[in-house]
Specification:
This protein is mainly α. The chain has helices at residues 3-11, 14-48, 77-110, 120-135, and strands at 59-63, 71-75. Helix 2 packs across helix 3 (77-110).
């Protein structure tokens, strides 16, 4: 089997395509959560903490040599805080989604399956049996 043909078969399997779709949707979901944290959650928290903008929280490590006070390298822990909050919200959303799916799956498993309808042959045989039992 040629390399190209083998790769084509691999790439077109259902689980590979499903995984690719999940990764794309997950990336978009991550961007939405990042925006939610940075633009909706962090401003009120910063306001409550005395007009602190978490993006600006940093520890300067190296200044410019010209004495201008320009920071060349800094440890930006405020962005790290935003990232941690992003992670917590994404983890919570995934947890709630999986919990909901498991609950739905459990309900589906609890429902007893309806017994299958008898075939036409069985119905006909029952009818014959019933009519024979009446003749006796």
């Amino acid at each position: 089997m040629g390399f190209v043909k083998e790769f084509k078969e691999f790439a077109m399997k259902g689980n590979v395509v499903d995984m690719a779709v999940g990764i794309i949707i997950g990336g978009a979901f991550g961007k939405i959560i990042s925006s939610f944290v940075a633009d909706v959650i962090m401003p009120p928290i910063g306001l409550l903490l005395g007009n602190v903008d978490f993006k600006d929280l940093a520890i300067p490590l190296k200044y410019a040599a010209d004495g201008s006070g320009t920071v060349l390298i800094s440890l930006r822990y405020g962005l790290f805080i935003n990232t941690i909050i992003d992670f917590v919200i994404i983890a919570l959303a995934i947890f709630l989604a999986i919990k909901g799916m498991n609950k739905m799956k459990k309900k589906q498993e609890e429902k007893p399956a309806a017994p299958p309808k008898p075939s036409e042959e069985v119905l006909l045989l029952r009818e014959i049996r019933d009519s024979l039992s009446k003749k006796k």
